[in-house]
Design a protein that fits this description.
Radius of gyration: 23 Å
Strand content: under 5%
Structural class: mainly alpha
Largest sheet: 2 strands, antiparallel
Strand order of the largest sheet: 1-2
Order of helices and strands: HHHHHHEEHHHHHHH
Helix content: 55-70%
Oligomer: single chain
Length: about 400
């Protein structure tokens, strides 16, 4: 019986990992695929490798927090671990159905917290620290995006640009005894560096996804002593990889197409900021939402770009009248960057807003209701079903 339950638990963890691979790969590699910098198969392979790297290194800290620190290890019986994983999987299914980037990490914490409440083993100090990070991360993301958008973005646009030339980016020079790589026909050094930067950032995003999300698939099993951390990371990576090679092909295309209105440079800035916040929190062992940091960084970046039409004193007096729009993160093709307060407001606006306030409210609502519902349902389940330790 125990072996059958263990197989069920492993299957539940694999299901969660599979869905993580489908969603996270699109976020990490959608911009690169949409810009035709790399192919979907290559993106899936790189995603799998860097997820493993992130999970094997930084991700161990998050596994320890979810599996050992929030509740006592004794609470994680095999039945309890399966129920927690089911709640995580259901949370992802509901989020996907509504098209809202609800955090798997937040749902996982909620389900485990419900277990802790039902068994009287919840460590409120650890949970409080995690919740504080949930509040701090989006604020940091917004202001990082705002500062970059207002002061640095136009200058970055002059330095970084992915303007693809026809033909291969790099080819081999076979005129020598030992073939050596060289730039392809028409490839400029700027194009090569910019393309390499896009790939590097996507790999960094994959590392961050592994650091934060590997634990969501296997931490309950590790916490219950049902599987050791090393094979757990391998299991999570393998199933995330399967998701990356299968269902993520559609999400990469969807995200890549969805971000075509958002300049690739803006997507790169957002990815670096969000991945850095997530990786740092994961290093501290804090399970945190990559989606939450990503969305708020985009909002901050658009706000920062839009405020370039006003000086600091005008902002203080509330004299800025603009919207956070797609065009707000688009730099005009001038050689000189206009100074702050000299950029025309109409160049930073568009009728189609990048973020409708109602959409942001819906995101925030789900970020609150997701872990809250997971906590409540998990608590009721473990009260009614005495299967926890």
């Amino acid at each position: 019986m125990v072996s059958i339950l263990l197989l069920v638990g492993l299957f539940a963890a694999a299901f969660v990992g599979f869905n993580i691979g489908g969603s996270s790969t699109g976020v990490a590699w959608g911009p690169a695929v949409g810009a035709r910098v790399t192919r979907k198969t290559t993106a899936a392979a790189l995603m799998t490798f860097f997820v493993f790297l992130g999970g094997w290194t930084v991700g161990r800290n998050v596994i320890a927090t979810l599996g050992n620190d929030i509740v006592a290890r004794s609470a994680f019986t095999i039945e309890a671990s399966i129920v927690v994983l089911v709640f995580i999987g259901l949370g992802m299914a509901v989020a996907n159905a509504y098209g809202v980037p609800v955090s798997t990490s937040m749902t996982a914490v909620g389900a485990i917290a419900g277990l802790g409440l039902a068994t009287g083993t919840l460590d409120l100090a650890v949970l409080g620290e995690i919740v504080v990070w949930w509040l701090v991360a989006p604020v940091v993301g917004f202001w990082c995006g705002g500062v970059i958008g207002r002061y640095f973005y136009p200058h970055l646009d002059r330095i970084v640009a992915v303007k693809q030339s026809p033909g291969a980016l790099v080819e081999l020079d076979r005129s020598r005894i030992v073939p050596t790589p060289k730039l392809g026909p028409g490839t400029t050094p700027r194009e090569f560096v910019s393309t390499a930067l896009v790939l590097a950032i996507a790999c960094y995003m994959s590392f961050s996804a592994g650091a934060s999300n590997v634990a969501n698939a296997v931490a309950p099993l590790v916490g219950g002593g049902l599987i050791e951390p090393e094979p757990a990371v391998v299991l999570a990576t393998a199933t995330i990889g399967v998701g990356a090679f299968t269902i993520a092909r559609r999400t990469m295309e969807s995200v890549g197409s969805g971000l075509t209105d958002l300049p690739l440079l803006a997507a790169m800035v957002v990815m670096v900021v969000a991945a850095s916040i997530t990786t740092f929190a994961s290093w501290l062992g804090v399970p945190i939402s990559l989606a939450l940091s990503t969305v708020m960084t985009i909002v901050g970046l658009g706000w920062g770009r839009a405020t370039r039409s006003a000086t600091a004193s005008e902002l203080a007096r509330g004299e800025l009248e603009t919207e956070i729009s797609v065009d707000a993160v688009t730099v005009q093709g001038n050689d000189d960057v206009p100074k702050i307060g000299e950029e025309r407001a109409r160049d930073l606006q568009s009728a189609d807003t990048l973020f409708d306030p109602s959409i942001v409210v819906r995101f925030v609502f789900f970020w609150i209701i997701g872990p809250s519902a997971a906590t409540l349902l998990s608590y009721l389940s473990f009260v009614l079903l005495p299967i926890a330790g």
